[in-house]
Amino acid sequence: MSNNILKNFETLIDSGSRDEFLLRQIQLDHLPRHIAIIMDGNGRWAGRRNQPRIAGHRAGAEAVRATVETAARLGVGYLTLYAFSTENWKRPRLEVEALMGLLREFLRKEIRSLKQNNIRFQTIGREEALEQAVRRELDHARRETETNTGTVLTVALNYSGRTELTQACRALMLEVQNSGRNPDDINESDIVRHLYTAALPDPDLLIRTSGELRVSNFLLWQIAYSEIYVTETLWPDFRRASLFEAIIEYQKRERRYGGVNGANPGPLLAANMK
Ligand code: FPP
Question: Is the pLDDT of residue 262 over 90?
Fold first, then answer.
């Protein structure tokens, strides 16, 4: 375990604690470069406490704060959080307003910590549909952190994977029309260039909380080879240890990208078929 990383957690983690035990199990030279998270379960968390859904979102914002800080201190390169999907507009107006309010509050309160932790903030999704006050706060956070060189925090807002792919196809078609390029020459990297995430590597690890086994229209192209980790933990209960556990599980997996294990591929045919 690199002493530097331990030092990064010195003021946060008690010696002998479970967090320290888990942190020591993480291979720091094999961290997922990009972690994407579908944050789910805020409503259930609130329901179990007989509280309004909005209380669950407020507690969820605290989990966002802890997760962002943990990822940055570990040295994870990219963290992408699914905060508001295009389908979320179907929720009651008051809930949508509360979510936008929490986002603004988070940005106002956390900007100092984002800067201290060298985090660069950005968003993906159709931000133009968000209200002016939210967009102003987003612009401010982007500007204030644009020269930071540590973790890139991407928040997906008014995001839909299908919309992203549709607009990428549209942009690519225009480009092909205007350049007279042969459509037969179009390859995967042409599509990638037109995604919101063109500048990001694909997620290595996709985490979903609250036990649901769905990808919910999130990063549909980008998660083609991501390791998926689903935890029963509801998002507001997701803390430093939860992220450590997800990374430890990821590090136990063997990523083959459709190939076989190079060192030990096993026999191709059963002995009696040769
Ligand atoms: C899913 O829980 C969560 C959301 C739709 C919103 C996520 C928002 C936050 C965590 C708070 C603010 C965000 C930031 C970036 C500060 P759900 O309501 O669908 O839960 P349920 O499935 O239990 O009803």
Answer: no
